[in-house]
Model the fold of this input.
Amino acid sequence: MPINPNTGQPVALFLFAHQDDECGVYHEIEKSVQQRHYVLCLYLTDGSYGGAAPEVRNRESRRVLMKLGVPNENIYFPGSTLGIQDTRLCFSIPAATAAVAELLGSHPLASLYCPAWEGGHPDHDALHVIVSLIIEQRGIRGNCWQYPLYHGAKMKHPFFRVLSPLAENGSSIAEIIPIRKRLAYLRYCASYPSQIKTWIGLLPFFAWHYLTDGHQYLQPVRLFPNDVRPHAGPLYYEKRGFLTWKEFENATRHLSPTARN
Done:
């Protein structure tokens, strides 16, 4: 069933691969709510990696989003409904794209946000492909943004960078986050107990970013063929054994708007 925002209310669409991916864009979500946009949050995998229960992960993200001001009825989990497994989104792009289109219906988008094309996780990059298809299908011009989460560019395994935009993705918009907001967002980062092992590794880096940098970074979504690696050298998800670049490329190359033009 399509969404039903108030007449004339602009739709700000936030697309996430996993329950907790909102951590990289807390500030933009909260700002969109305060600007009285119809903030719509969709999660396109079930988040079940490592045996996590999708319903538990759904509840965790729902609680955090509601703290940011997103109404409960504006939060959807089509990835769980469709049974799209964590780390396998690149193999279900048509179904996931169709689910997004069904929810949006004919409503125009004021803005769109997704994780960056950065080689950190195959689902994040697959979601970037989905966004490219949505942009093509709906003829969107501008106000489509990607935000960094983590990547391993120029880093030896197991090290990685957090919330650091790749130069390959173009220029960034950097907005300083007020310190009280940064402290609140750090508390939200500790609101995913089902992912405690992941967050033991991530939280120190998030804390360092919030305390020493403190910016929300956004970059325009770029449309390019899916055979263009996010960066030189091994990708972080290759280092972790999730998927090879060749597997990802084979699964997505034929879906790229620019590859078909």
Remarks:
- The beta strands are 11-16, 38-43, 75-76, 109-115, 144-147, 150-151, 161-162, 173-176, 215-220.
- The chain has a mean pLDDT of 93.
- The CA atoms of residues 54 and 73 lie 18 Å apart.
- The longest strand covers residues 109-115.
